[in-house]
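Appendix B. Chain record.
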Amino acid sequence: MEKEKAKIEVIKAAIACSEKKLIHGTSGNVSIACREEGVMVITPSGIPYEEISPGMVPVIDLYTGEWTEGECKPSTEAPMHRLIYQKKEKMQAVVHTHSPFATAMSILVEELPAVAAASAPYSPVKVAPFEIPGSEEIAEAAVEAMGEHNVVCLLKNHGLIAAGINVSQAMSIAEYVEENSQIAYYTYTAGKMDPIPEYGYKIMHDRAVKKLGLE
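Structure tokens predicted for this chain:
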């Protein structure tokens, strides 16, 4: 996607994430990779999404990490987004949220199983160990937790991060994982978290892997 169009799409996606309660305040971030131009655009740090204009959206070199354009400072989580793009070359968008149930489950479990069918294509979701937000360490932990065949992980005591072939898909995956986390939380606290059997979620997961080109 051409970067000027990507700036507009990032703003729209961030506002949508806020409206869906995936992001509270300015705590999450959204990016799109413009691979033909060798850059990514990402939401700026600490600016209410409704107030962002395209000229404010930071542009970052995908290879050097240099902030090359945009009136406002990039999100502190830019290194995590950039490393995901480097490691998963078919992914074109990343959404990072602090959604409450995903965050709660990141504290309770080491791996989130599929308890809701909608999230099964992206399950199980591993939990990356806690690292300081904005650090290279959290970027590396997130990529390692995703592994080769998934595009989402939970970040311990922090939230979740999801990638997609476009920003709509990345946001959709974040929604499915938050929904799955909510159902898992309720059943976990009720003392009977009963995941989908492995044969069931594996079929759906394998289909998603093929669709995403992660074979």
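Further analysis of this model is presented in Appendix C.
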